[in-house]
Amino acid sequence: MSLIALRDLTKRYPGGVTALDGLTLELEPGIIGLVGANGAGKSTLIKILLGLLPPTSGVATVMDLDVRSQGTTIRQFVGYMPEYDCLPPDTSATDFVTHMARMSGLPKAAARERTAEVLRHVGLYEERYRAIGGYSTGMKQRVKLAQALVHGPRLLLLDEPTNGLDPAGRDEMLALVRRTGTEFGIAVIVASHLLGEIERTCDFLVAIDAGRLLRAAPLGSFTERTGVLAIEVEEGAEALTAALIGHGLQAVADGRTVLLAVAEDAHYDVVRDSIASLGLPLVRLEQRRQSLEDLFRDDLPATAAQAASTGSGLPPGAPSPGGGVS
Amino acid sequence: MSGTPAQPARTPSAGSSGPGGSIYDLGYQAYDGPRLGRRSAVVALLLQTIRACFGIGRGGRAKIAPFVLAALAILPAVLAVGFAALAAQAGPAGGAIGDASPINYASYHGLVGVLIMLFCAAQAPELFGRDQRYGVLPLYFSRVLTRTDYALAKLGGLIAALLAVELSPYIILFVGRVLVAPDPVAGLTDEIGAVPRFLLQGLLVAGLFGGISGLIAAWTPRRAYATAAIIAVFIIPPIIVAIIGDAASEDFARIIVFLSPADIVDGTNAAIFGSIPDSPVVASLGLPGWAYLAAAAVGVIGSIALTIRRYLRIAA
């Protein structure tokens, strides 16, 4: 069973803005990152999957159910966390999440029980009886996640779940998302414009730009070819660089740090041996990834050519949609 | 509608305890209990809306307006029954006093009509505006209920709450008059005929006022504006009808009276109870009762249809 299948999915808004442009894609369950700049079409895609927006053309199925004709059944098994504020300030988290559970068709007792469980899971304790209006942004985001989880969905659609959070709050939210996906076996799609977040959270990456698919692949395949090892030494960076280059590796000295392109595991042995034979005081070894943005840039010509050949009908570099439709 | 990838139902709490102690699993678990689907969600929203109309589940301040208005609506009926009881003790002459009471089924609409309008103005903006103001609609529409379900549950809740406020005094009046009558059985046969009449009038008032104020509130997320607009729609048209009827042309007034919800239900009340309309202008126009009944029915259906249309088109 495929989690999500899209065929030539296109969405044009009245006024001529094209938010999705012939998107064809098949996804298996997992924790999936959906990345793209603001306006790339992430939110539009999520809303189409939920049946909140009708597609202009093409086919989209969720858990093999068509979004157009079987929306009600899909929505029974999908949880959605919107990007923007969606919480009434004068209700308590408990009351609100219970209500939302009932709106998903849960019986009253089950709704209460699930609300207590889910709020505990997202880390809301005593404060859950207070009005939401007094919550911090981090707590509100947790309530938003809780309402998406309360009816026990098989698929979670999270639209910018770290919106408005400080770095610590982001880390906590991402850990929570990761834990929810791995421990409970729920498929998760996280939309974000921040690649660093996706990298830490997801197993699979879908990159879209201007409503077209840039790339869809396991996260590992994005990074493995470009693993960079940063070797920080107290002294002797130049000598180490020379030694590594002597072994036929690509290395660059950058102050006290040596950057080394790692293509295979044997290279780590070379590093260890070189440092040992030079007797250098090693400070740290750090796996460094080039930013995913760079990767996309490298992949762009190839995927654009691919998109053209699969019949998106538009040349690469077609005008991108304006703002406000992400 | 439902039933594709459903799993076997299981009581979530079953099997968590056994002899000699209990195992408490406090972690998050996948839910595989019953999913009652769309109908259950609609009923839950309807009941929640009725509760919200009376401020139940909100703070104490939210209860003031609905309960004060409901109490004021009931008060004349309680007084009427009280006087009737006192009059009955005065002997046969008292019965005549009771019959002459100005508070009866036919006159009650004139006593509560304004209160129903104020109830709408106070509660409808909260029911329909809140979810739009705070962006809650996407959470509803991404669940099992449809946009039409949402609109109907909200309108149904408001109309049901109005019906409760509207019918309670009639019921008090009815029960009181039966009990106060010298012979309760004869009293029951005397009074029972009024029941379908006040039920119909109550339904028309609740449906028309609830439908129109729901439609206005659904279009006006800002609370204060919605309240003002609802009051205006009920208060201003009767004034215009009166001015035109008096000064300009009665023929024209006979047409625009159907744009005035307050005058329409005045007309239906007179038609249903066979009395004279409270508004002298409506009385002087001399239109047939069925015209007001038809206008009320069109108004109820039209306002509900337009409210559904609003929610079908609203961005979420």
Tell me what the structure shows:
- The complex is a heterodimer of chains A (326) and B (316).
- Chain A is α/β, with parallel strands linked by helices.
- Chain A folds into 2 domains: 4-222 and 293-309, 3-Layer(aba) Sandwich (Rossmann fold), CATH 3.40.50.300; 228-288, Alpha-Beta Plaits (2-Layer Sandwich), CATH 3.30.70.980.
- Chain A is built from 11 helices and 14 strands.
- Chain A has helices spanning 42-50, 71-76, 93-103, 108-122, 137-149, 167-184, 195-201, 219-223, 237-246, 266-278, 292-309, and strands at 4-12, 18-27, 31-35, 57-62, 65-66, 78-81, 155-159, 187-192, 204-209, 212-218, 228-233, 251-254, 257-261, 282-288.
- Chain A has a 6-stranded mixed sheet, with helices on both faces. A 4-stranded antiparallel sheet of chain A has the order 2-1-4-5. A 4-stranded antiparallel sheet of chain A has the order 12-13-11-14, covered by helices on one side.
- In chain A, β12 and β13 form a beta hairpin.
- Chain A is globular and about 70 Å long.
- The two termini of chain A are 28 Å apart.
- Chain B is an all-alpha fold.
- Chain B has a domain at 36-224.
- In chain B, 74% of the residues lie in helices and 1% in strands.
- Chain B has 13 helices and 2 strands.
- The chains are: A alpha/beta (326), B mainly alpha (316).
- At the A-B interface, α2, α3, α4 and α6 of A face α1 and α5 of B.
Write the layout of secondary structure elements.
The complex is a heterodimer of chains A (326) and B (316).
Chain A lengths: L3 E9 L5 E10 L3 E5 L6 H9 L6 E6 L2 E2 L4 H6 L1 E4 L11 H11 L4 H15 L14 H13 L5 E5 L7 H18 L2 E6 L2 H7 L2 E6 L2 E7 H5 L4 E6 L3 H10 L4 E4 L2 E5 L4 H13 L3 E7 L3 H18 L17
Parallel strand pairs in A: 3-8, 3-9, 6-7, 7-8
Antiparallel strand pairs in A: 1-2, 1-4, 4-5, 9-10, 11-13, 11-14, 12-13
Chain B lengths: L16 E2 L2 E2 L14 H17 L6 H30 L2 H8 L5 H29 L3 H5 L5 H34 L3 H8 L2 H26 L3 H25 L2 H7 L4 H13 L6 H6 L3 H25 L3
Antiparallel strand pairs in B: 1-2
Helix pairs in contact in B: 1-6, 2-3, 2-4, 2-6, 4-6, 4-8, 4-9, 4-11, 6-7, 6-8, 6-13, 8-9, 8-11, 8-13, 9-10, 11-13
